[in-house]
């Protein structure tokens, strides 16, 4: 039994890199006055008003709940990850912070077999990160890396993607035939457009932080984009401010031609609030003594 648990933990640690990569989809996925409500039947008009309203928002907070299930071809064990991440973003001052915990498990065991607690801050072109794995080597030092000047354009794209307007860019794909509903929550009707975007567009989007910043190995990115994905995205839109209060991303795929993946399921549920509220996004004291590493050797 001890050997089985040891091999299970080893397998989970082998999955951490890929599962952490999937968390990066947050950047790929994965608004402010009070205009007159649009007609609920006009999905395109509502999508345009959401994009316009989001363009004026400088600060916001999110809570992100992610679950991932992965089963490799020929492996009877399914690996799982669930995480809760909280973030604050100030695109005007180019400051953001995100922190949370991911837990890892296997299909035949009810208790988690590992966890990772992560904090990451972006301050201008500097990135500070800290991760603690359990079980593992314990506390790791904070790492600071500065985006090289040659990549400033890519980082500008990343900041654009981090803006609230960037977070709603999938609404560009809304058409007259897009699925659209009105959902009543606590006595108020919310607009709920539904999309089925192309996964390749999500993974390779400029500023996603996936293809251009080395967050995903190019071979892994290629393998993920070549798979046949089923993707569903829904937004919950306030009927007066046209701000997105929630975004639910669901995607799944089956085996690729090379047999590398049997099942991969992703669910990311994001809640938005504190639009244009004052925010003091400051580094924690321990990050001020971060170990400085070149961008290429940052390890995150």
What would you say this structure looks like, in words?
It is a single chain. The chain has 300 residues and is an alpha+beta fold. It has a single domain, classed as outer membrane lipoprotein receptor (LolB), chain A (Clam). It is 23% helix and 36% strand. It contains seven helices and twelve strands. The chain has a twelve-stranded mixed β-sheet, covered by helices on one side. The longest helix is centred in the first third of the chain and has 22 residues.
Please tell me the overall pLDDT: 77
Radius of gyration: 20 Å
Instruction: Write down the CATH class.
Output: Mainly Beta
> Terminal Cα separation, in Å?
33 Å
Structural class: alpha+beta
Counting structural domains, the number is: 1
Second-tier CATH architecture: Clam
CATH third-tier fold name: outer membrane lipoprotein receptor (LolB), chain A
Question: Summarize this, please?
Answer:
By secondary structure, the protein is α+β, with helices and mostly antiparallel strands. It has one domain (2-297): outer membrane lipoprotein receptor (LolB), chain A (Clam). The chain has seven helices and twelve strands.
Key terms for this structure?
7 helices; alpha+beta; 300 residues
Topology record:
Blueprint: H1 2-23, H2 25-28, H3 43-55, E1 59-71, E2 79-90, E3 95-106, E4 114-123, E5 126-134, E6 143-146, H4 152-162, H5 164-167, E7 179-185, E8 188-195, H6 199-204, H7 218-226, E9 229-237, E10 244-254, E11 263-273, E12 291-292
Parallel strand pairs: 6-12
Antiparallel strand pairs: 1-2, 1-11, 2-3, 3-4, 4-5, 5-6, 7-8, 8-9, 9-10, 10-11
């Amino acid at each position: 039994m001890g050997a089985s648990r040891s091999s299970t933990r080893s397998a989970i640690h082998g999955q951490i890199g890929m599962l952490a990569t999937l968390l990066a989809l947050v950047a790929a996925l994965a608004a402010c006055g009070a205009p007159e409500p649009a007609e609920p039947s006009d999905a395109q008009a509502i999508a345009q008003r959401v994009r316009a309203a989001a363009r004026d928002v400088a600060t916001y907070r999110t809570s992100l709940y992610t679950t991932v299930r992965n089963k490799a071809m020929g492996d009877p064990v399914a690996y799982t990850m669930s995480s809760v991440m909280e973030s604050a973003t100030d695109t005007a001052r180019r400051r953001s912070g995100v922190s949370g915990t991911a837990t890892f498990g296997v299909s035949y065991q009810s208790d988690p077999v590992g966890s990772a607690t992560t904090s990451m801050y972006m301050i201008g072109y500097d990135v500070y990160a800290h991760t603690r794995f359990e079980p593992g080597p314990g506390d790791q030092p904070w790492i600071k890396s500065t985006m090289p000047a040659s990549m400033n354009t890519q980082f500008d794209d990343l900041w654009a993607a981090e803006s609230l307007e960037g977070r709603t860019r999938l609404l560009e794909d809304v058409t007259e035939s897009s699925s659209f509903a009105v959902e009543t929550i606590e006595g108020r009707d919310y607009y709920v457009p539904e999309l089925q975007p192309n996964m390749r567009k999500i993974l390779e989007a400029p500023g996603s932080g996936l293809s251009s910043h080395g967050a995903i190995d190019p071979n892994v990115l290629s393998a993920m984009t070549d798979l046949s994905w089923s993707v569903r995205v829904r937004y919950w839109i306030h009927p007066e401010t046209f701000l997105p209060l929630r975004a639910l991303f669901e995607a799944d795929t089956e085996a690729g031609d090379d047999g590398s993946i049997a099942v991969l399921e992703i669910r990311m549920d994001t809640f938005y609030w504190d639009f244009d509220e004052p925010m003091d996004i400051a580094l924690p004291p321990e990050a001020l003594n971060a170990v400085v590493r070149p961008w290429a050797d940052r390890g995150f």
